[in-house]
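2.7 Reproducibility. Because tokenized structures are sensitive to small changes in the input, we list the exact sequence used for Hedgehog protein, including any N-terminal residues retained from the expression construct. No trimming or masking was applied before prediction.
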Amino acid sequence: MKQFWWVHLAPLGLLAVWTCAWPVHGCGPGPGYGMRSRPRKLTAMHYKQFFPNFSENNIGASGRAEGKITRSSERFNQLVCNYNPDIVFKDEENTSADRFMTKRCKDCLNRLAIAVMNQWPGVHLRVTEAWDEDGHHPQGSLHYEGRAVDITTDDRETEKYGLLAQLAVEAGFDWVYYESKHHIHCSVKSDKSEAVERGGCFPGWARVTLAGGQQKSLSSVTPGDKVMALSETGQVVFSQVLSFLHQNKESWSTFLSLETEDGHRLVLTPHHLVFLAPDFRCGGSEYRAQFASRAKARDCVLISTAGGLTRPSQIVSISETESMGVYAPLTEAGTLFVDGVLVSSYALLENHRLAHWAFGPLRLLHPLNQLLWGEMVKERQTEACTETETHFSTLSTKNKSSINEESLLINKDNLSEAVVAKPQEVRPLERQMSDVHWYARFLYRVACIFLDASIFDP
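Resulting structure tokens (single pass, no recycling of outputs):
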């Protein structure tokens, strides 16, 4: 059969695209998301300079304003009070208003306070303005939401302010502006938008079903495993895990726990998509992927049965829980069964079909990625296994009686600490998948530009 010339060039084109895309992986956040790595030498910012080089309300900076917060509004309860003794609060209103701010703003401010004391011993950070309840700023100011602060040093030496601005950048503020000769303006994303950018996922102890019927926790699932999923035609299949859209074994998160009448318990973050229907009479095609936060008691989810089929199960209770470790596997089918309940691989965007289409390029590049890097990963895994075997061989030569005595003293808490500590031994091999996948973050930023913001809000 005659082949066109472009058929021969297609693999080379894919290779070029993949080669360009691979370095972008480094743009994704690492374990310390929210705090930029510190350069070897700090360079003071210039007067009227701002970083990053966007307007404050741009998505690449602190994002749009979400509305003024007053003491009588429900959102006021989301603000926290900063009592850090290493920060001087001007509080000219005598209402402690300058101490109120969002949690993200508080965390950045506390980090900056430490950096200031390290940079200038004996000098403290000073806040001249934070949450504004008196209307002293222009409409839409982030001061009205507790997301912005104006800062100086307590010695008020203006020649330090350029370096103070750079320290604020390093402390993790999302937008820093050398606004005035007398202060630096800093602001952050809303706590809600930061949570959205982190995506949706499941705890590490949640389980999936492999092709042989074996159960496996998400923390031990690796790309290449085939897990139970549902195809676009409604058939139960075993779909390959291509990657993790979010993976962080050390992150504490708040999850929703959906318990069904059959004893199934699905635990996931509020922005993850789960297939829901209002009652039992709905067919499989009528189950719609929705944010988990929309689930209500008496809604139905789809669960897997022993015969490779699905059936509805009614939600009887919904609660919140906290757990360490967050995992969001991307399967080839775009779906999977977690603890027996059908869920989507996607989060943030309340449109499963659109999300599945958007991740098409990542699925297309996956075989090429495996071809080029599979052998390297295998070699590293072999080296790690060899080191582990050598380590345990060394242990076996120790006095067995002393080891047995020590094992009797291990309680539940010590065991959990050991389990948490052990993965740190292979941290260098896991670094590239430590948090949100670069492609997922890229898609989120593009979607925020071209799609209506309401599609992200549960």
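Residues 360-396 form the longest helix (37 residues).
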